[in-house]
Amino acid sequence: MLISLRWLREFVDLPTDDPAELSEVLNRLGLEVEGWRQIEPAFRGVIVAVVTAIGSHPDADRLRLVTLDTGSGPHSVVCGAWNFEVGATVPLALPGAVLPGGFEVGERAIRGVVSAGMICSEAELGLGEDSDGILVLDEADHPVGADFAATLPYPDVVFDLEVTPNRPDAMSVHGVARELAAQYQLPLRPPDTAVIEGGPATGASVRVEDPERCPRFTAREVRRLAVGPSPLWLRLRLGDSGVRPISNVVDVTNYVTLELGQPMHAFDLDRIPDETLVIRRAAPGERLITLDSVKRELTDEDLLVASPERGLALAGIMGGEDSEISAGTTRILLEVAHFSAPHVLLSGWRQGLRTEASARFERGVDPQLPPMASARAAALIARLADGEVAPGFIDVYPRPVEPVVVEMPAAEPRRLLGVDLGPGEVSSLLERLGFGVSGEDPLSVVVPTYRPDVTRPADLVEEVARIYGYDRIPATIPHGPGRGLAVSERRRRRICSVMVGAGYHEIISFPFMGSADMGRLGLDAGDRRAAPVAMRNPLSDDQRSLRTTLLPGLLDAVRLNQARNRPSVALFETGLVFFPGDGELPDQPQRLAFVAAGRRPAPAWAEDPGERDATDAVGTGETLARALGADWSVEQGEDPVFHPGRCGVVSMGGHPVGVVGEVHPATAARFDIAGRVAAGEFDLDALLALAEPSGFVAPSPFPPVVFDLAFELAETVPAGGLVAAVREAGGSSVEEVRLFDVFTGSPLPPGTKSLAVRLTVRHAERTLTDDDVVPLRRAVAAEVEKRLGGRLRGGS
User: Could you read off the pLDDT of 629-685 as tens digits, one per residue?
Assistant: First the structure.
């Protein structure tokens, strides 16, 4: 939102014009300044003059000889524009004047006639884009003989503010001025709303058929007006605020919308049958051509401002062509209403339409604002369009909105901010923002209706902190039984840290997927992941559902990296997935997923480490388990996303928690990924719920014994089963069991394989001897034979 400093000063006498200081103050108030720019006239030497005579050029039919008076004598100028006559007030660049771009004006002969200067257009002065004719001025705003630059609303500073969605009160010049007045403890001036009514009372009427969507509707007639260009000051102010000037009537409605934050619309009253407005829901299939010339098909969820015969405007969003203001309009009905924020938001989404009006209504406009805004706009229209305001202000407000009252314990600011503020100081800070405060403990606070975001004591404390100053609040260490991070949060951070330490980079992807993603993953119709939750308002047709797995986003990231010549990549993500639930909301479990493709990282001088494969995925699972202090195992499993035979189900703490392995080559191809891809996905909720290790265990100071065992097993026996059997047989003295070799073929019998494991054993209180190790080897061999039918081949 663009805000003019000069405009702000119309409501509050700011103690400084320094944009840097004001930017800092606005940022502290929570109104983020994204930038600011200074505006000054880009010309000098231009004088306001009045045209006293116009004659023909003796040698050019399209040129005119214009005589002008600047208050110090006549000046003769040759001019090719025809949009002004005798008596017009215009900007005259005398010889020696400098125009934008460094162009210096001088005397020169044009077809044999000397022109002592030039009359300027908006474009030539850098004040706008209109170059079709001379800039004609209002003499009341630009007295003859004055330096034209001095009559303009410059110099000025325009701030670009980022207003958060919960602050509708700050979506206006007056709202921002109110914040600055509170900060600097200065009085806030109200806008001039004095209306002079005349003539017979209005014959217009209003009927509200849906008070839920339109709690308040006001209307006022302005007659005998002349639609035309707005005065220069208004056009410049709108242009500096990012709004294109149109005509005096429309410009005033836009001006007051920016000034007070209350959207409004002007209807051509002569084009409204029976001079009656009906606020009703649209009929299913009803159509309306809006001011952007788009024919829109409506539903019964859309609200219309209509005549008894047809729709005239999409309420709170945009007017219709049937009643728009034109050059021939002489009577208007000025609508200033309050519309329900959720309904404006949803209607705008359905129609794919967002305007300055809807941006304000969907945040929540003050329901008490329409009378003031109506008076302000009617008075301006009457003055700028020579109109007359008809008596008979229409205000349909069947159920007035009462201010919210919040009870706040006196100790609440201390509890939340750590600052001792007495009830008197808290009351003073809140009253500066327009809150009404009574009582001492608790404080009874009446929230102004322009602050719909304040509904509870914590919101009031935030208001106190904003005005008191966040920089004045000391940093303190949390105290009490709940200090520190929760176990689940500590474990979450540990998991992310472990993944980063293992060489993975964290990414965040959008939680959306489409039917194409299910096809690319190769999911069967019966797979739970193939039945996603559909969204009512998808961002695009190819992202109509909420994700059921994190893998599509990660695989897309691998594809993107490979396309950018980054073939070796390792990524992980934590986030929610979504499944249909029993209630209105879906089930939202947390997941941790990772992918790794390309060659393993290694120093340039090292041997080629080879490409990543299923063993990298298994190793990542083991690394996580060790970091979490959990027992773990992996057994062969099946998943359509993964390669058959290269997929394992990981268990930690005795429960399945995820799957690891190598992505199916067909799946990788459908994602346009070259080469093998190691991947895995874990139930993050299950990882976070694992029991914390019982405590610190001192490492043994005695040396380990390391030896290898090879077993002949049936080909169908998973390696994870062997590792689990060895661990169980070895008991507490076994520190590590690592598979390091798989062999098939001669001299082994057909249908068998050899699996070799390396055991590391250590005693906590003494050095192990052969008398300890030999029985352990026998126990391991016996357990493998008993459980898996394996035969010890040899060892060392």
Answer: 888 888 888 999 999 989 999 998 888 999 999 999 999 999 999 999 999 999 999
Three-state secondary structure string covering 483-547 = CCCCHHHHHHHHHHHHHHHCCCEECCCCCEECHHHHHHHCCCCCCHHHCCEECCCCCCCCCCEEC
How large is the C-alpha radius of gyration of the chain? Answer: 38
Q: How far apart are the first and last CA of the chain?
A: 77
- Which CA distances in Å does 465 have to 26, 46, 304, 422? 14, 50, 42, 14
Nearest residue to 133 via CA among 174, 79, 93: 79
Element (H, E) at 162: strand 156-162
Helix (H) or strand (E) holding 606: none
Residue at 590: amino acid letter: Q
Nearest to 571 by CA among 683, 688, 680: 680
Core vs surface per residue 335-374: b (16+ CB within 10 A) or e:
bbbbbbbebbbbbbeebebebbbbbbbbbbbbbbbbbbbb
Q: What is the three-class DSSP state of 214? A: coil
pLDDT score of 631: 83
- The amino acid at residue 225 is L
* Full set of structural domains in the chain with CATH: 2-40+155-184 (3.30.56.10), 44-151 (2.40.50.140), 205-396 (3.50.40.10), 405-472 (3.30.56.10), 488-688 (3.30.930.10), 705-795 (3.30.70.380)
| Alpha-carbon span 147 to 110, nearest angstrom | 26
Distance CA(724)–CA(633), nearest Å, equals 7
Place of tokens 């005398």: 94
CA dist., res. 562 & res. 791, Å (int): 46
Residues 335-386 pLDDT 10s: 999 999 999 999 998 888 899 999 999 999 999 999 999 999 999 999 999 9
- What is the value of pTM for the model shown? 0.71
- Adjacent-strand bridge partners of 116: 107
Is the separation of the CB atoms in 377 and 222 below 8 Å?
no
Sheet holding 590-597, edge to edge: 505-506, 569-576, 590-597, 677-683, 655-663, 642-652, 632-636
CB 330 within 8 A of CB 225: yes
CA torsion through residues 378, 151, 149, 72, sign: positive
SS3 call for 267? strand
Confidence of residue 796 (pLDDT cuts 50, 70, 90): very low
User: d(Cα 260, Cα 370) in Å, to the nearest integer?
Assistant: 10
Percent of the chain with pLDDT over 70: 97
Can you name the residues that pair with 10 across neighbouring β-strands? none
Cα 246 to Cα 291: distance, rounded to the nearest angstrom: 13
Q: Contact at 8 Å (CB) between 111 and 57? A: yes
Q: Which residues pair with 738 in a beta bridge?
A: 758
On the question of pLDDT at 478 being above 70, the answer is no
- Report which of 577, 597, 575, 595 is spatially closest to residue 586, judged by C-alpha positions: 577
C-beta of residue 619 within 8 angstroms of C-beta of residue 739 = no
**Considering only CA atoms, which of 71, 112, 111 is closest in space to residue 94?**
71
